[in-house]
Write the structure tokens for this entry.
Amino acid sequence: ALQGLRFAREPVRAGPSVHQDMAFSVGDRVQARVKNDRLFYTGVVVEVIPGDAITLMVRYDDDGEMSTIPECWALHKEDRRVVWRATGDDGAGSAVERNVESEGGVLVTESVMWQGSISARECDADTGPRTARLLSFGMSPKVYQSGVIVRRNGSLNWDHIFDPEQGLALGLALMSPPLTQHTAEHAKIVVLGGGGGTLTMALHSLYGGKLQQDMVELDPNVITAAHEIFGLEKDHPSISVHCANGLDFLAAAESSSYDAVIVDVCAHDTVDGASLEIPTPPFVDEAFLKESAHRVLKPGGVFGMNVIGDALNLAKVTYKLQLLFGDVHILATDPNYYFFARRAVDGASTRTSSVSPDELVERATAAGLDNIGGDLLRHDVARTEHYRVEEMLIGWLGAAEFLDRCTREVV
């Protein structure tokens, strides 16, 4: 499965089939979704069935199952090209000309992504192919850490970043005082597990370089890739890049020094399907959450964390944050769950203060964050009630409801 491999899509334009220049053949490797599933999975085309609408028979890699799907449900032919890699520990990397994937180290690949509607009733939509630049680790090359769409002129489109980074950005809409173009110059955030720097650069672009950001990344090779391949600013006064362990960095930070703390940490050897896949366990320990994350937040500040895990671990994270912060919300997209907790304003109670899906959309729009996370706002947050009726754990949920749903899954 592709963990959260989705990018914000440009407006759909009427036109010929998105696959008019992209005929599929038996043996083609594709990334495709099945009915009622919003994730894409890698597989191989085993049969092309002609007709008024071409249908593909796809065998998926993860469990060997097959399904018959409309051609338009295939996202693209898999076309991964390694453009940069580093295997040492000195932060040095090199461009590569051949598609050679190392067993370790850091990889930057490019793949063709079809941007446009992926629903069967809009198969004639055409926004054309885009190239996605993706960062991953050689030990788990299909679990992407960072991503951004490359424009046709070769520049990077910071309005079209990797799905997890969209989700984490939306949590900034909960900050108090609200984050806006006018207040950004007075705000400061820290990102632990900065990866390719795509979230940092998206926020940098959105707020015109006014938002103060610390980006913390443990691997010097990743930082090199961020600067050389993903365009992370090196000398801008509003961006400070730190090669450090995120736990140690935050432990040494001053109390009440950040308006937001964002955790998006993934180990090099992360295992797809592990009980707690993301983040690494120390980042969900009570000691880190209380003595570092909660302590360094200003009153009204937001803690955000990307979590992939089973129902039991999701419930544990919810419970810990609820006890410490009280005010907790979760953006559930499956398999990624984005936890957001607000530190109470001085003198205020720590009890839960509910923010509805509609209110989040309003806040995010006012903050300009719909430019980054508009896809998640439209397809996940705004459709929360629909998913609730369908009994799907997707959408914008308060801690009590999310904890109840997770508990029932465990039982």
